[in-house]
From TrEMBL:
InterPro entries: FAD/NAD-bd_sf, FAD/NAD-binding_dom, Ferredoxin-NADP_redctase_2. It comes from Methylobacterium radiodurans. PANTHER family: THIOREDOXIN REDUCTASE 1-RELATED-RELATED. This is Thioredoxin reductase. GO terms for molecular function: oxidoreductase activity. Gene3D superfamilies: FAD/NAD(P)-binding domain. Residues 3-282 form the FAD/NAD(P)-binding domain. It comes from the Bacteria. Keywords: Flavoprotein, Oxidoreductase.
Amino acid sequence: MRDVIIVGGGPAGLNAALILGRCRRTVLLCDAGRPRNAATPRTWGIFTRDGIPPAELRACAEADLRRYPTVERRAIEVTGAARTDQGFTVELADGTRERARRLIVATGLHQDLPEIEGFAEFWGTGVHSCPYCDGYEARDQPLVALGHGPAAKGFALELTLWSRDVTLCTDGRPAELSDEDRDRLARHGVRVDERPVRALRGTAGEPSHLELADGTHLACRAVFLMPAGCRPSDLLAGLGCDLTDTGVVPTNDYERTNVPGLYVAGDASRRVQFAVVAAAEGAMAAFAVNTELLREDTR
């Protein structure tokens, strides 16, 4: 039996493995190889690595892990997990089972895109979920906030940090904004367009405009999707882990969940979804796991 199994090889899982390897814990890191940011050309906001391609960042982290002989990496999907008296048992895609005293789930979230032509094509290059991550590269160009409801006001106003040419587009839904909300948006130059969207068009991997259902065009260099519910790993529900209405895990101190011995780090937990934050959460989970195991071992 290992000390820890980590599910997910993104920033959270890799950093958790690094910290635990330095604690000489026996670790199995399993990664299915389907990162959420696979289509993103660059990862921004990580000091000393600002703008590094995601695959290169992972390769650097994996090279670091090779220094630690107690850490094993496998490129394989974890298809099931169960809590036992001794800890956890996980089932892998090849049918084998592995056991560990603690489990860290760092699988992130699955991003569902609107079913609008062109959104999948430009995902990561012109369709984004986080203006902090990708707003700077589209600065001073036409930006679209896609969403509706009271929270859309704040999201659209946030985009004015990067451009003064911002449109809140509801894709045919009522904006659900009060007159006061509309006045505030107008004062800051944010337009509201409630017409349905037919497609996102562009060339050479870069969007140029939204094509609306009435045949008109709306200039658009980047679309930012308003935060919405995402799908976490099925492992979490199967283990009895609490989830919020938006599909994330309400982790407690040091990424603990309501399930004893289970930790969730990265985008599937409650904090902002930055790569550098995910890595920090992985480190916190590793610290907590090591502390728990040490207490058990030194009773």
